[in-house]
Amino acid sequence: NAGVTQTPKFQVLKTGQSMTLQCAQDMNHEYMSWYRQDPGMGLRLIHYSVGAGITDQGEVPNGYNVSRSTTEDFPLRLLSAAPSQTSVYFCASSYSQVLTYNEQFFGPGTRLTVL
Amino acid sequence: GNSVTQMEGPVTLSEEAFLTINCTYTATGYPSLFWYVQYPGEGLQLLLKATKADDKGSNKGFEATYRKETTSFHLEKGSVQVSDSAVYFCALSHNDYKLSFGAGTTVTVRA
């Protein structure tokens, strides 16, 4: 049981490049989400999904796309990277979207630098 | 909207010292409250939670009590160890799909 896995661990991009951050979970969780972590700002929700084929925007969705074709995978796409997207990105999953009662499990994170 | 404010760090302590990290929140109704911990190089892990007023969450020697009258959820541990060095996040969930996190408090425990 690997839990939530993320690849890559580190990435450096040039402004304007695109890339996909991968996230997978093997716990058969319905709810998955992406956060970015910036100094002094905690974690902010980018996008989330309550099941395969269903996604929605969080607090800071601009510049990011997501899709959920399977229960296990929830990739995050940066369409045209900007320096403001330099951050640490965390993927998380939960048994259900009822986060008031269900623990979220976090991946180890991807540290992204955009030059 | 919902928000969480927690004390700024960094906090540096000696082993066996008492630790308190203050957390206050703004929300309508009765949110659930959480403390997450992030050890160096790792993702966040749930440390403890409380889902209604006056509930006390506890785990690994840490405790926090949900105080609706003061809208607070302060984290405490009576005797910290070097292994408690981490970043601690207070969070709340009012809606079913979102957690609101505080900025995080870095705690360093020296031997």
Explain the layout of strands and helices.
The complex is a heterodimer of chains A (115) and B (111).
Chain A: E1 4-7, E2 10-13, E3 19-25, E4 31-38, E5 42-51, E6 54-57, E7 64-66, E8 76-78, E9 87-94, E10 105-106, E11 110-114
Parallel strand pairs in A: 2-11
Antiparallel strand pairs in A: 1-3, 3-8, 4-5, 4-9, 5-6, 7-8, 9-10, 9-11
Chain B: E1 3-6, E2 11-14, E3 19-21, E4 23-26, E5 32-38, E6 44-50, E7 56-59, E8 62-65, E9 75-77, E10 86-93, E11 100-101, E12 105-110
Parallel strand pairs in B: 2-12
Antiparallel strand pairs in B: 1-4, 3-9, 5-6, 5-10, 7-8, 8-9, 10-11, 10-12
Brief digest:
The complex is a heterodimer of chains A (115) and B (111). By secondary structure, chain A is mainly β. Chain A has strands at 4-7, 10-13, 19-25, 31-38, 42-51, 54-57, 64-66, 76-78, 87-94, 105-106, 110-114.
Describe this structure in words.
The complex is a heterodimer of chains A (115) and B (111). By secondary structure, chain A is mainly β. Helix content of chain A is 0%, strand content 50%. Chain A has no helices and eleven strands. Chain A starts with a strand and ends with a strand. Chain B has 111 residues and is mainly beta. In chain B, strands 2, 5, 6, 10, 11 and 12 form a six-stranded mixed sheet that branches. A four-stranded antiparallel sheet of chain B has the order 3-9-8-7, with no helix packed on it. Chains A and B meet through strand 5 of A and strand 6 of B.
Q: Quick one: biggest sheet of chain A?
A: 7 strands, mixed
SSE order of chain A, one letter for each helix or strand: EEEEEEEEEEE
Mean pLDDT of chain A: 94
Computed over alpha carbons, the radius of gyration of chain A is 13 Å
